[in-house]
Specification:
single chain; two-stranded antiparallel ribbon; two-stranded antiparallel sheet; 23% helix; 4 strands; Alpha-Beta Plaits; globular; alpha+beta
Length: 64
């Protein structure tokens, strides 16, 4: 699994951090940050949920 974030699309809703805090954080402006891409493999359901709940579609999960 590979996860990418589009910081230009992010609206700072925080669903990513609430659902997958080991993988995502927000910077001082509330914009998504990808903390540990490798952790996505350890939390696939949480990362998938974060991507689904992201209102701006800023998180993309690439399953391969």
């Amino acid at each position: 699994m590979r996860v990418t974030v589009d910081t230009e699309r992010c609206v700072g809703a925080g669903q990513c951090v609430l659902n997958a805090g080991a993988v995502f954080d927000q910077n001082h402006d509330g914009v998504v940050e990808l903390l540990d891409p490798a952790a996505a493999d350890e939390h696939p359901d949480a990362v998938g949920l974060a991507a689904t709940l992201c209102p701006s579609g800023a998180i993309t999960v690439h399953r391969g």
